[in-house]
Amino acid sequence: MAGWSVEDVPGQGGRVAVVTGANSGIGYVTARELARRGARVLLACRSEARGVGARDRLGGEVPGADVEFARLDLGDLASVREFARTYPYDRLDLLVNNAGVMALPYGTTADGFETQFGVNHLGHFALTGLLLPVLLAAPAARVVTVSSTAHVLANIDIDDLNSERRYRRWVAYARSKTANLLFVHELARRLAAHGADVIAAAAHPGYAATNLQTAGPEMAGRRAVQGLMRVGNRFFAQSAEAGALPTLYAATAPEVPPDSFTGPSLVGWRGSPAPSRRAPWTRDDRAAQRLWAASEQLTGVTYDALGA
């Protein structure tokens, strides 16, 4: 793994990939490099204008790339179901659950969930479950979910998943990223129990310069914070190109184990991909099972193909 770079991404010819939030940042870089290695890539984005723009830009950067756009709003379960219903292929080799929001003012999704929990966790939980049959139809498929080192700031509160008692934007974000890791932990366990050869793994980009940092302050009208985030992105963050490497590693490297967590090697901030530290509560079997049951109840999506 030491020194692993984009040049080490193996050939992806014949593979089909879905990347959520692929119109910008590490999602775009991930989609582009998968396409460069020969994968057929579906860009799953909320905005049609930005998604089509990303598809066209990617086609210009990678001539001959097999890439398409499909609309997906993770904050609307009807949109998630429609995306899965109209998924155009009979197999899915790689699902990259990349899209996310960070430290937003309080809000709710179309289905009434707190936005960060609803988009970052529940939307991807539902998407993965609905696409499970085509994942199982592909040999050695993978599900890679993008979390964050910020998960260490807070464990989930199973009795207040939607932060109804008290909303603190960074705590809610951390809880959603912990939920990502608990989801991967339980999904990996269930896949193994079913005897499936699908690998569920997680990754994080460290501190990468994307629009994720500035979206929340912009929405809240916090111009000073927005300015600080821009300064941080410019002088301290690594590029989106570098930030995408842990995701690409988890998605394509041959030696990735189930329930692994890959991030940058230098104190989780920057550098080549390496195993990343994670809070002990993200490996709590009981918490993962309780979150799973709650997620099924909230979304109405059950993973029937994996049995009870």
Automatic annotation (TrEMBL):
Provide the alphabetized UniProt keywords.
Oxidoreductase
Family annotation (Pfam families)? adh_short (PF00106)
Q: Which SUPFAM superfamilies match?
A: NAD(P)-binding Rossmann-fold domains
- For the region Disordered, give the residue spans: 263-282
Q: Which domain of life is it from?
A: Bacteria
The family assignment reads: Belongs to the short-chain dehydrogenases/reductases (SDR) family.
List the protein's name.
Oxidoreductase
**The organism of origin for this protein:** Streptomyces pseudovenezuelae
